[in-house]
Protein 1
Amino acid sequence: MRLTMRAGASLLLGFTGIVVAGAGLNRLLDIGTCASGGPSVIARQCPEGTTLWSLLLPVGFVIWMVGLFLSEEGLVKPGTGQVVWTAGFTGGGVALLVKVLTSPIEPGAKAGLYVVAAVFIPMGLAFGVTGIVQLVRARRGDPRSRGRSTGRKPATAAGDPHLKRLHRLRSMGALTRAEFDRLKHDPATAADRLALIQQLAELKASGVLTAEEFEAKKLATLRGEHR
C-alpha cells in the first residue's frame, strides 16, 4: 500500500474522527443520565458543556466517514479504507468494553454497551482479517491476488497449445487425471511425450494395440524410456 496524499488524508481524517467521536462518547458515558431545561422537575441537571460533548459524537462520525470514502481501495482491497474501518469498529468496540469494565456505569446502560461492543468488534475484524489474508496471498504470489491486481486471466486450453493437446488426450481416455496434472506443469519436457502418447492412443483406437499394451507403452513414455 503506497502512502499517497489521498491515503494520508484518509488515515488522518479517519483517525481524527475516531478520536473526536470517542472523546464525546466517553464524556457522555461519564455524565450518565441527565436532563436540562423545560418546565418539568428534573432529577439530575446536566453539567455545563454537555451539549458540546454530545455534538462531538456525530461530528466525529462524519469526519470518520469522509476519511473512509477518501480511501482509493475502498473496503475490497488492502488499504486505508480497511484500516479506518477496522480501527473505527473494532477499536470502538474494544474501547466500550474497557469503559464498561473499568467505570461505574448504570446497569441498564452496561447491557446496551455490551451488545454494541459485541456487534462492533466482529464488524471491524471482518475487513481487517480480509485485508491481512489478501496481503499474505499477494506476498506469496497467490494467483488469485495477481489476477485481481493485474487483471490477467489464467491460461486456458483455447490459448495454449500444450493445454489443448492435454485436454484432447484426456477426453480420449489416454491420460489419467494424475498424469494430466503432472504433464500440465512440465510443458518443456512433455511435448515429445505427448506426441508419442497421442500416436499410441491412435494405434489403440485402430485396434493395433490392446489396452494393456497401450498402458505399458504409455508408462514407458512417461518415464522417458521411449526411443
Protein 2
Amino acid sequence: MFIITVPPRNAPDIRKEVKQWGNLLNGVPTQCVVQAALPSKKCPSKPRRVDPPSSLGALRAAADAGKKEWMYSKNTSDAYAGYVKRAQQWVSQVINTARGAGESTLLDIDDNGRPIKCEEFALVFEKPPNRHSAHALELFLVQKCVTEGNGKSTCDSIYSALKKYWEMMDNDTYRGSYCYDESTDTVTGNPASSARVQDMLQALKNKSRANGAGGRNHAEAMLIEDLRKLLDWSILQCPSDWLNKELTDVVTLHFVAKHLMMRAFTTSGFVIWTR
C-alpha cells in the first residue's frame, strides 16, 4: 500500500505535512506528484516596423555627410580646410597683383610656352582642377616654404590638405596618378601626385635637411630589402649553427642572445606593422 497525492503547485508546506503524515506517522509510503505547469500562451509578437527604402538621393546625401563628419577628426578637417582657403586667397592675391600691373589677360607662360590666363589661374584650386592646378600647387609651396621661409611641417601640411581636397572632390576622378589630356583639356588623377609637385616636395625635404632645420624627425619606413640586409649582417656576425653548440662563456651567450632577440623583434615587428 502506498499513497499518491497531488498537492497544489508552489505549496511546499502542504507537501511537507503530507509526507510527514504518511511516511513518518503512519509508515505508509507517500509520494507527492507535482502538477505540470500548463503551457503559457505566448502573446503574438508585435510586427517589426519596416521603413520604406530611402531614395537614392537621400542615401547619397547621408553618405556624403557621413564621410565628411567621420572620415577625419574635426581638428584635421579644420586644419585642411584652412590650408585650402589660404591657397585660394594666395591665388586671388597673385591675380590682383598681375592685373594691377596691367597684365589683365596674361599672367605668365607655362612650360610649353602657352599663356596662363588670369581667368584660368583663378580656378586652379576650385572644382574641377585644370591644367594649371599642379603648377599652382608647386608655386604655392615655393611661396610658403622658400619665399616665406616656412619649414617642412608647413610643406607637408599644404601638400596633404590639397591632395585630400582633390581626392574627395569627385569620387575616383581625381585619385591616383596624375594625367592631363590636352586634346580634351581635362585632368584625371590627383594634381598633387604630378611629377612637378613630387619633385618640389623632394627638393624642399633636401633643403630642410641641408639647413639642419628642426621640427619633425620621423624615420623613413623600412623596406623589406633593408630588413634582409640587416638579417644577413646578423647571421654573418652570429652564425645560425652557433645555436646547436653548448655555449658556456657568459660573454658569448650574451652576444648570441642579443642577436636572436634582434632577429625575432625585427621580423615580428615588420610583419605586424606592415599588415
Protein 3
Amino acid sequence: MVEVFSREAPGASMFTAQCQVLDMKPVLSDIPCIKNEQLTLWQADRDAWRRDHPLMAMLADGLALVPVLDDRLATATTDGQSLFFNAAYSAGLNATTRAFLQAHLVWHCVAGHLHEKPHLDGHRWHLACDHEVNALLMLQGFPVCEDTVLFPSRMKQSANDVYDWLSGHPALEREVSLDQLPCLPLASSSLPNAWQRATDPDYRPQPLNEQVESGWQHQAIQAAHHCQTPLDSSGSLPGFLIT
C-alpha cells in the first residue's frame, strides 16, 4: 500500500503571511536586513553541526550560502556549488525545518542528485531523491521536520528503486518537496503582486557538470575519514562512500 502524506505546498498563503508579519515591502533598504538576518541563522546551524554532526558541517562547507529574494525561487535549491534560499521563505521556518532543509540539500549533492534525467518523470524523480536523502538523515539522527517526504516502508531503498515503487502512487501531486532541484523548471512563486517581477542579482545558479558531482563524492569520502565515520553497509551512509 502506498503511503500518502497530506501536505500543503509553500505557496501564496505562506508568503503573504510572512510578508504581513515581517512588514516586508519591495523596498531596497529592506533587502539587506532580511538577507543578512537569515544568512546568520543558516551559518549558525552549520556552527552547531561542528559540535553535534561534524561530518555534516564539513560537507556543508562545500556550499556557499546565498540568501536571495527572487520570484524564481520559492524555497531553496543548490547547483552543487552554492546553496540558494529564499530569505522570505526562510523567515517563516522554525529552527528544525531550516536546519533540516540545509542538510537535505547538502546530501542531494553527496548522493549525486544534481543531474537532470530527462527520460524520467521530473516530479516523481525529485520525490524519490528526497526520500533517499531524508531517510539517510533520519538514520544519522537528524530531527525530521513535519513536511518531510519519507516513505517508511522504503527506508533503505535507493532513489531508483523508490522511483519505480512510486509508479503505483495514487496521488503524487499531494507529495510536496521542501526544495527545488535546479534540473527542474524553477516554479514562479506566489508572492504578493508588488513582488511578482522580483529578481535578485545574487541568484545565479551555475550549469551542472561532472567535475562538480565527482568532487562531492571525493569530498564526502575525505570528510568521513577525517571524522572517523564508519563506512559500512549499515545504511547510515551512501554505498559509494565504502572504500
Protein 4
Amino acid sequence: EGTIGPLQCQWMTAGSGIIHQEMPKASPRMLGCQLWVNIPAKDKMTHPAYRDITEEDVPLLEEDAATVRVLSGKYNGVSGAFDGGTLQIRYLDIDLNPHSEWVYNQTPDDHTLFLYLLEGTLITNGLEEEEQKGCALLMGTDGKQEQPDQDNQAVAVRSGAEGARFILLSGKPLNEPISWGGPIVMNTREELDLAFRELDNGTFIKHQ
C-alpha cells in the first residue's frame, strides 16, 4: 500500500503482471501526472515492482531562474530518484520564475523529447505563440528538433507573467508495435488477448 502526498510520486513496473487500485481522496485542488512508459518486448515479462518516492528522495537543483527536480535519469551530473531500470528515461519537473528563460541542451542523440505544461505559459525556441497549460510539446525525434535554424540539441523556453511549471521527458524510441486494451499494454493483439484470459481465470499474477 502506498500513499502519495505533495511533491511525491510512485514508480510502478507492471512487468509480468501487477494489480493495483487508485483511490484519490477528495481535495480542493489536486494536480498530478500519470505517465505510462512501454517496456521493451524483451523485458515485458520482468518481475513487477513498486516504489514510493518521497519529496526527500528527489534531488532538487536551484538555478538562477528555475527549480529543477530530477525524478529519473541524470541532469547536470545529478542522478534522479529512480534510474528507470531498463527504460532509461529522463524525467524532470521544472518550476520557472515569471518572465524567465531556461535552456536545456542535454538530450541524447537517440532520444525523443517532449514537454508538458502544467501551469502558466511558455514560449518555446523563440517562437511567437505562447503555449497554455495542459499543452504537450513534442520537440522532435532522435534528439533533433523540427524547427529550422535551431540548435538541434537545445530547447529554450521563456515563461510569461505567471511563470511556468512543466515536466520534461526524454527517452529512446522503441520502434515496436503496441497493442493496448484498458489497463494492459502488450506488443501484439494475441498477447493482449492472452493477458485478459489469464486475468479472467486467475493466472495473471506470475510472481507473488
